[in-house]
Amino acid sequence: MTKEQTKSNENKNTTKKRLASLDALRGIDMFWILGGEKIFAALFILTGWAGWQVAEMQTLHSQWHGFTFYDLIFPLFIFLSGVVMGLSPKRIDHLALSERLPMYKKAIKRLLLLCILGIFYNHGWGTGLPASFDEIRYASVLGRIAIAWFFAIMLIWHTSLKFQIVTVASILVGYWIWLCFIPVPGGNAGILTMHGSWNAWIDQHFLPGISYQNRATDPEGLLSNIPAIANAVLGVFAGRLIAKAPTLGECKAAGILVGSGFMCLALGWSWDLIFPVNKDLWTSSFVLVTSGWSAIFLGVFYVFVDVLNYRKCVYPFVIIGANSIMIYLASSIVNWEYIANSIFGGLVLSGPETWQPLLSIFSLLAVQLLLLHWMFKRKILVSV
Questions:
Q1: Per-residue buried b or exposed e for 201-232, using 16+ beta carbons within 10 Å of the residue's own CB
Q2: Which of 82, 94, 208, 302 can pair with 232 through a Cys bridge, CB separation 3.0 to 4.6 Å?
């Protein structure tokens, strides 16, 4: 075997190891959606300690301006999709069109499929897709992930790293200028309210169907897709850094990630003074704050899972992350609570009354984890 082949194999093995930390972090991100967000309320019932109520507040979305850790779940997922792309970025604009077409078709197919699945997810929980097109909610979490991923991969395929950096800066500054300094038709500039923002005006005039809870501004509305692209591209930069870890040094790469994360937090919260952190508007300050936390968590997980090799400790999160899209969609069409009660209901009711809420959550998570464990061991990994 030649020296070049040996180096290539080492790089491939390193990439595979890195994916363990990505799966673990993606899994802990999904854990809160699957039922983990109810743990703190159950612990408060069990212990009566007020600290659990404080923790529970972090499992609720901000009402408007502001930030909770539950607001991080969505942008972290987008950031991690960028990390995966950044692990092995490649330009294809030098290839002949006939060679690029299959890649374009695959990207467009993924974009459309995720958008369609997002629409079906919106109408789960036993309600079904409305017969009238005007009653369908088209904006979705999966749709935003798809759009951010699609534009990020197009940038990777066709532009240089320098151009991508300029693009992120232009998106963040341009979005700030748009929302804060350009008047809304029939209104004023800089109105960042549910009904008076540019986001509300565009959703009301151009977003088909209905919005989330019939709000004036849909949290996954049209305009806020633009800054979400920056989350994905910032994830690409993080992936590029991790890809260089074998030569740069694993701990050094993780240190740069964490340091960059704190810089983003400082910039984001400084910007918050004039452009508030807001999830529904997906403000530029929100992009920086969420990307900052994403980079910090990625650096920590990379060291813990891949460098120190504590994979067994995070195995439940790894199996969630490995099939994150599947279990996310299943949460909309499968009644997990009914299944958990059918299997563990008797055991839960036999416990002390103060323990029952916590035991119910554990039973709910156990059913989902057992399925994911079975799929993981048989290498059944569902991806789009």
A1: bbbeeebebbbbeeebbbbbbbbbbbbbbbbb
A2: 82
Angstrom distance (rounded) from CA 149 to CA 166: 18
Task: Tell me the C-alpha distance between 165 and 161, whole Å.
Answer: 6
Q: Please tell me the distance from the alpha carbon of residue 364 to that of residue 384, in angstroms, as a whole number.
A: 26
Q: Which sign, positive or negative, has the C-alpha torsion 126, 130, 135, 141? A: positive
Angle formed by the axes of helices 141-158 and 97-122, nearest 10°: 170
CA distance 41 to 56: 6
Give residue 125's pLDDT.
Answer: 73
C-alpha 233 chain-centroid distance: 13
Q: What is the torsional sign of CA 90, 91, 95, 100?
A: positive
CA atoms within 13 Å, Cβ hemisphere of 206: 8
Q: Is the pTM of this model over 0.90?
A: yes
Low-confidence ranges of the chain (pLDDT < 50): 1-18
Is residue 318 within 8 A of residue 25, CB to CB? The reply is no
Instruction: Give me the pLDDT at residue 124, please.
Output: 80
